[in-house]
Amino acid sequence: MVTYIAGSGAIGCRFGYSLAKNGKDVVLLDNWDVHIKAIQENGLKIVGDVEDTIQIPIMYPTEATREADLIILFTKSMQLENMLQEITHLIGEGTKVMCLLNGLGHEDIIRKYVPEKNIIIGVTIWTAGLAGPGTAILKGKGSVNIQSLDESGVEKAKEIVQLLNESGLNATYDENVFPSIWRKACVNGASNATCALLDCTVGEFFGSENGFNIARAITHEFVQVGLASGIALDEAEIMAYVEEASIKAAHHYPSMHQDLVKNHRPTEVDYINGVIARKGPQLGIKTPYCQMITDLVHAKEAVLAIR
Ligand SMILES: NC(=O)C1=CN([C@@H]2O[C@H](COP(=O)(O)OP(=O)(O)OC[C@H]3O[C@@H](n4cnc5c(N)ncnc54)[C@H](OP(=O)(O)O)[C@@H]3O)[C@@H](O)[C@H]2O)C=CC1
Ligand SMILES: CC(C)(CO)C(=O)C(=O)O
Predict the structure, then answer these.
(1) How far apart are CA 33 and CA 69, in angstroms?
(2) ipTM surpasses 0.90
(3) How does pLDDT run across 108-165, given as a tens digit for each residue?
(4) Is 300 among the catalytic positions?
(5) Residue 218: nearest ligand to its CA?
(6) Residue at which a domain ends, from 121, 146, 173
(7) Domain range spanning residue 244?
(8) Domain boundary among 123, 152, 173
(9) What are the pLDDT digits (tens) for 206-264?
(10) 103 and which of 13, 58, 84, 271 could share a cystine (Cβ 3.0–4.6 Å)?
(11) Of the listed 45, 76, 96, 184, which one is catalytic?
């Protein structure tokens, strides 16, 4: 059974490493040339909780030839569609395509390239970073929750849960994964863009009354839009989850801070706060915080001349 990791940045390397370390046939796909070269020449280096180096195949998506049994999508949201276009030749009748990206609405893009029966959607709270090309920083523990979009794919999705568990990735099959996806989107929605705009850690943002109130207002907008979209969300429970996550990640600069402020790269804001800003008005819900935050992030991208 061949598994491709389509998008092998930080978290893609974590999943690829775990699968390869447990003897699975896994191939990393990416378009970042120096990263590919580093792994081809020196193996994938792991630092953090363990120090290791593993030989693992990595190539450009267009170079891969074997039809996939499973593709795990781990691009940034804005790279997803381009990646799907580059891997269509790997997608056969029975290829399962699993998406664990942060953010909302990725299934709408995947449906253009993969039949509904083969799409698996989910969320992970594993984390990972990159120390540089070819070196992943893996710390802490996490989990994966997934669901087949179509009833006919449930059995196969449960086999994928088993594959992930044999690789230590702590996966669960979920009858309704969307509340978990939205819950994580609320955490990202409250912290990522705000910390990127204010150039601060999660703890610093939640540490002031103003910051905390902004996080609460953003979460409220997410929950209202989620509820109106048919997602079962409990605002008090979600707010408690967002607060708990802010304590756990207190010293952390969120990924959007790293993209925007540190690396001057485009952000995932359109797939987090931007989704709420777009959907809210369509559903008759006011979403001024998400709209303003999305606009400010794009304004800052323009200031930094990020394309
Ligand atoms: N990291 C984490 O802890 C977690 C991340 N996620 C989500 O998973 C998805 C992937 O995230 P993550 O792995 O962190 O993303 P990364 O930024 O580490 O990697 C994503 C892609 O960005 C490109 N890239 C990364 N660094 C560089 C660089 N320095 N120079 C040039 N290109 C680079 C590569 O794509 P290309 O081939 O185009 O060059 C790579 O495949 C996102 O949706 C994220 O929100 C979800 C849970 C946890
Ligand atoms: C740390 C955390 C939870 C902040 O939202 C995160 O998921 C990120 O950095 O993207």
Answers:
(1) 25
(2) yes
(3) 999 999 999 999 999 999 999 999 999 999 999 999 999 999 999 999 999 999 999 9
(4) no
(5) 2
(6) 173
(7) 178-303
(8) 173
(9) 999 999 999 999 999 999 999 999 999 999 999 999 999 999 999 999 999 999 999 99
(10) 271
(11) 184
Residue 181 · residue 191 · CB < 8 Å: no
Structure tokens at 99: 């998406």
299 CA to middle of ligand 1, Å?
22
Mutational pocket test of ligand 2: of 100, 143, 187, 260, the residue with most ligand atoms within 8 Å of the beta carbon: 187
Closest ligand to C-alpha of residue 183 is 2
143 & 236 share domain: no
Nearest residue CA, atom 9 of ligand 2?
254
Tell me how far the alpha carbon of residue 273 lies from the centroid of ligand 1, in angstroms. 19
- 15 and 164 part of one domain: yes
**152 and 197: one domain?**
no
Number of domains within the chain: 2
The reported pTM is: 0.97
Is the same domain home to 27 and 151? yes
Q: How far is the CA of 194 from the centre of ligand 2 (A)?
A: 11
CA of 128 to the centre of ligand 1 (A): 10
Q: Which residues of 11-39 are buried (b: 16+ CB within 10 A; e: fewer)?
A: bbbbbbbbbbbeebebbbbbbbeebbebb
E strands present in the chain: 2-6, 25-29, 44-48, 52-54, 58-59, 70-73, 96-99, 119-124, 129-132, 135-138, 144-148, 171-173
The CATH number that applies at residue 118 is 3.40.50.720
